[in-house]
């Protein structure tokens, strides 16, 4: 059907979607992975915090016995520094996990367009459609599964811990704290692993939904291709202007040529020789109307024209404007330049001349 979005999004469409913050990603992945990482780092953090606390508490009785504001401030400063260094690994871990989770789901990009106010966001209809659409059904199912899994994990963990807590009166406080801590960490870790599995499923669902929203019609793909590659008509006009500018540039260089080789009417090639720059170079060439214009400029500026059909054709076909002549034509062009220099010595260089070495050049 016309207008049906059946085509996969193009690279340009995906790039635009990323710039607008329309990326298929699940927020749950970063949260659950962060919880798992925290359950690994947290025991060491708590152990370090307890050690620092005991050390600081040991200094307080002496400070109370001999009050000194400087000592008290030193203890406070030391406590704040200890707290900072203790919490820093946990904070860095959570930050790295959050960045890695975002980067693994399509890269990190600040979508500045999301900060711009849009009045269509105030329209309640899209929100109502989401509340009663497939997305709302998936979110409700996800919440139900999440609650069920977490309840099951909590029940399985606490089932083994409750009998032990019932006899906690006969256990030392340190042992009781260790048991409770291990149980809490186990709950967190198992819940985090289960949450990561659910978040992975959520990621694939969100990704699929986003790709479906970004699909394009055949007409949109054609239009985007035209916009990217350029309209052929416009490209043709640009190419024509470029060719015209190139012709104008080479026509401006014809007066600086030392000789113009002609065919005699169909092809014209203007050569300039500067010993300091190496071999002779083509400053202008063309056939048909361009060749006629080159001959007219040569006549106007008294540039000698030499008729040599094989050499003119070879130079026109095998050399670009601005390039040196091919090595295999050095000898033939050198003879033409020598012939032109002899004409200039006689004072009769301007006009049309037949190359006396044309037979040799053709043989070469």
From TrEMBL:
Pfam families: Bac_export_2. GO terms for cellular component: plasma membrane. InterPro entries: T3SS_substrate_exporter, T3SS_substrate_exporter_C. The keyword Transmembrane helix applies. Keywords: Cell projection, Cilium, Flagellum, Membrane, Transmembrane, Transmembrane helix. The chain crosses the membrane at residues 83-103, 186-206. This is Flagellar biosynthetic protein FlhB. It comes from Krasilnikovia cinnamomea. The lineage of its organism: Bacteria, Bacillati, Actinomycetota, Actinomycetes, Micromonosporales.
């Amino acid at each position: 059907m016309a207008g049906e979005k059946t085509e996969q999004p193009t690279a340009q469409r995906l790039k635009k979607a990323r710039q607008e913050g329309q990326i298929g990603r699940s927020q749950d992945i970063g949260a659950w992975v962060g919880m798992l990482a925290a359950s690994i780092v947290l025991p060491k953090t708590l152990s370090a915090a307890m050690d620092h606390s005991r050390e600081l508490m040991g200094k307080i009785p002496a400070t109370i016995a001999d009050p000194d504001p400087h000592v008290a401030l030193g203890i406070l400063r030391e406590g704040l520094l200890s707290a900072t260094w203790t919490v820093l690994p946990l904070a860095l871990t959570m930050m790295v996990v959050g960045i890695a989770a975002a980067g693994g789901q399509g890269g990190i990009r600040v979508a500045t367009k999301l900060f711009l106010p849009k009045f269509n966001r105030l329209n309640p209809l899209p929100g109502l459609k989401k509340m009663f659409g497939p997305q709302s059904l998936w979110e409700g199912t996800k919440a139900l599964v999440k609650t069920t899994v977490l309840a099951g994990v909590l029940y399985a963990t606490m089932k083994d811990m409750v009998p032990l807590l019932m006899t906690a009166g006969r256990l030392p406080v340190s042992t009781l704290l260790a048991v409770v801590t291990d149980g809490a960490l186990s709950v967190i870790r198992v819940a985090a692993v289960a949450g990561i599995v659910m978040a992975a499923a959520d990621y694939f669902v969100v990704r699929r939904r986003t790709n479906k929203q970004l699909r394009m019609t055949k007409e949109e793909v054609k239009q985007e291709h035209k916009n990217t590659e350029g309209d052929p008509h416009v490209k043709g006009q640009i190419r024509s202007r470029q060719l015209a500018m190139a012709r104008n540039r080479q026509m401006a260089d014809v007066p600086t040529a030392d000789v113009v080789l002609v065919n005699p009417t169909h092809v014209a090639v203007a050569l300039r020789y500067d010993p300091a720059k190496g071999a002779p170079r083509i400053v202008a060439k063309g056939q048909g109307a361009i060749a006629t214009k080159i001959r007219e400029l040569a006549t106007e500026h008294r540039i000698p024209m030499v008729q040599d059909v094989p050499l003119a054709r070879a130079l026109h076909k095998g050399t670009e404007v601005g390039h040196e002549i091919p090595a295999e034509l050095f000898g033939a062009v050198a003879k033409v330049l020598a012939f032109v220099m002899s004409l200039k010595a006689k004072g009769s260089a301007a006009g049309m001349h037949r190359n006396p070495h044309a037979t040799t050049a053709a043989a070469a």
